[in-house]
Amino acid sequence: MSAETEIAPWIDDYDDAVATFRWEDAWTEFGGPVDETGVNIADRAIDRHVREGRGDHVAIRFFSRDDSELSQPLDISFSRLAAQTDRFAEALRRHGFDPGVGVATLAGRIPELYVAALGTLKAQAVFSPLFSAFGPEPIAQRIALGHIKVLVTTRLLYRRKIAPVLEQLPSLELIVVVGEIDDISPATPGRPHVVSFAEFLRSSTGEWRQARTDPEHPALVHFTSGTTGAPKGAVHVHGAVLAHQATGRMVLDLHPGDTYWCTADPGWVTGTSYGIISPLVNGVTSIIDEAEFEADRWYRILQTQRVNVFYTAPTAIRMLERLDDGAGRSFPDLRLVASVGEPLDAEGVRWCERAFQVPVLDTWWQTETGAIMIANLRAAEVRAGSMGRPVPGVRVGLLAREPEGGLRLDPEGRPIVLEGADEQGELAIRAGWPSMFRTYLDQDDRYRKCFVDGWYRSGDLARRDADGYYWFVGRGDDVIKTAGHLIGPFEVENVLDEHAAVVESGVIGKPDEVAGNIIKAFVVLKPGHVADEELERDVLAHARRRLGAAVAPRELEFVDSLPHTRSGKIMRRVLKARELGLDEGDTSTLEGGAT
Questions:
Q1: Rounded to an integer, what distance in angstroms lies between the CA atom of residue 124 and that of residue 101?
Q2: In CATH, what number is assigned to the domain containing residue 447?
Q3: Rounded CA separation 503/325 (Å)
Q4: Residue 378 falls inside a structural domain
Q5: Which of 121, 235, 390, 586 is the most exposed, fewest CB within 10 Å of its CB?
Q6: What's the CATH number where 311 sits?
Q7: Residue 523 forms beta bridges with which residues?
Q8: Which runs of consecutive H residues, i.e. helices, occur in 208-359?
């Protein structure tokens, strides 16, 4: 589908959409109401299209990492995906695994992962994606925390990541391996049985009959790490599919016939919510590329596959900007670019608009929210550097905070919700949206502490302007107190990134006897710029002009790269630990960490 056909956005009047949208009405609009069959994510994502005559439509177009010419895609139709996921679901049953059992995948972007994920959901088992670049210990920790009994992985990852820690995985009963298993030791007492993926599917007749699925039946467990403590398993339910479908339309503007590409790894929540579920539920063709980032390959996929909607991370956008500006390229079919993972700074938005000649929409959400909560929209004004406005059906507020970080309460002990423009507070969402997580696995007390007076506390700080656009300030634990001022690192980074020589920056508070903390910036330069004293003075002067002396960095260090999580967030605590010579803590989610 070409953008030149002037496809109208699903939302053309934001205020009207906010006033009229109701989740209870959306069930009927998005595939039928909850009835005697209940709601199953996989049924809504696959089989519904087959029943409605769209079985021949390409659901997934897969490119192998070995296909350097992008000339041999594997097209998987909705009918074929339905048949394969039926086999996977029935095979789980034939091996004795009942609804509610924990099933995890540890693999890259390969077709078998998508079959396993959706087949697990059909079987009413609980799906947990694991990131394939984790080392053996973080993987073992998550398998144990998730009570995983079935693991789907590849031959290489089994040997490198699972075999070394098998003794730490007493809950694991079955390992399904993509690839040959001839040289894998046979099962012994106390060790899980190993079977090839092909053999596992052959154990099924494929005659699957979908059982009724309660919308509140657990469907997904996504592990999320804080700065301290063990990972938390955020539990989501089948009813979350309504938010996946609605936000795919309202925010990503997915239309039937579209070609869509989400670059997120399926080991993370974005790769599941918007790399698997949302595009399938909305009936579009989803591009899956097994290869890792390569600027020229990405540009060629966007062009040759006539991608209409491109969803990626700010880190990837900065890498494109740094490595290849896309000069001379044309993307006539592209309708919009959206970003996720960390706020996209204003300069990143402007570069992306120049490179792709389409609207660039930042989105905000978390593992716990399950779906996009705040976003810029295609048909509305895009305010570069802002998170956008709440998605219709989502109520967002800012909770007042005390100077030392706790919530400010009214005389009745309830949090104070800020109503004015340009006030800064903790971003909170009124409980009740469909994809809201239902608990942390085995940690109900920790879950309850995330809510206050009916508000989910995100832990992020933001401000809201007079027109209702939200602007990210920083994580609550990242905010810097300097000389009596509370400074959000992102507002400083946003200004630094505007400098012509800067591609990316990270800001921390460095202890100081006089000011309490001073602001120190770590800066990555664009190619062709020399990290010398003259450039350092120029960047600092730019920051002082834009921010004022009280907010601008006092120190600046040029670095080759910044530490990121594998989902794209700058790890400011790691920067601070390195600066102060402290323990970096859990770095299992750190990009480039041990594998």
A1: 8
A2: 2.30.38.10
A3: 12
A4: no
A5: 586
A6: 3.40.50.12780
A7: 505, 558
A8: 241-250, 269-272, 278-281, 295-304, 314-323, 346-356
Which residues neighbour 290 within 8 Å (Cβ) at sequence distance 6 or greater? 62, 63, 64, 65, 108, 109, 110
Say how far apart CA 378 and CA 511 lie, in whole Å.
43
Which three-class secondary structure string do you get for 45-95? Answer: HHHHHHHCCCCCCEEEEEECCCCCCCCCCEEEEHHHHHHHHHHHHHHHHHC
User: What is the mean pLDDT of the segment spanning 405-428?
Assistant: 93
User: Are 466 and 503 part of one and the same domain?
Assistant: no
Task: Mark whether 344 and 270 lie in a shared domain.
Answer: yes
Give domain status of residue 69, yes or no.
yes
418, two tokens: 């800020």
Question: Count of residues for the chain?
Answer: 595
Among residues 376, 350, 135, 107, the alpha carbon closest in space to that of 251 is found at 376
What is the spatial distance between Cα 207 and Cα 86, in angstroms, rounded to a whole number? 7
Host H or E run for residue 149 = strand 148-154
Q: Tell me, yes or no, whether 284 and 303 share the same domain.
A: yes
Could you give the C-alpha distances from 148 to 208, 496, 587, in angstroms and in order?
A: 23, 44, 23
**Shared-domain flag, residues 88 and 179:** yes
Question: Do the domain assignments include residue 317?
Answer: yes
Over the range 530-555, which residues count as b (16 or more CB within 10 Å of their CB) and which as e?
Answer: eeeeebbeebbebbbebbeeebbbbe
Q: What percent of the chain has pLDDT over 70?
A: 92
> What is d(CA 384, CA 363) in angstroms, rounded to the nearest whole number?
12
User: With 90 as the cut, is the pLDDT of residue 105 above it?
Assistant: yes
Conformational region of residue 95, where left means phi above 0, alpha means psi within -120 to 50, and beta covers everything else: alpha
pLDDT of residue 188: 64
Three-state secondary structure call for residue 150: strand
For the stretch 282-315, pLDDT in tens is 999 999 999 999 999 999 999 999 999 999 988 7
Query: Residue 380: inside a domain, yes or no?
Result: no
Q: What's the domain count of the chain? A: 3
Nearest to 453 by CA among 473, 475, 426, 474: 426
Q: At what angle do helices 533-547 and 489-496 cross, to 10 degrees?
A: 120
Q: Which two tokens stand for residue 20?
A: 């009229």
566 shares its domain with 448 = no
pTM: 0.84
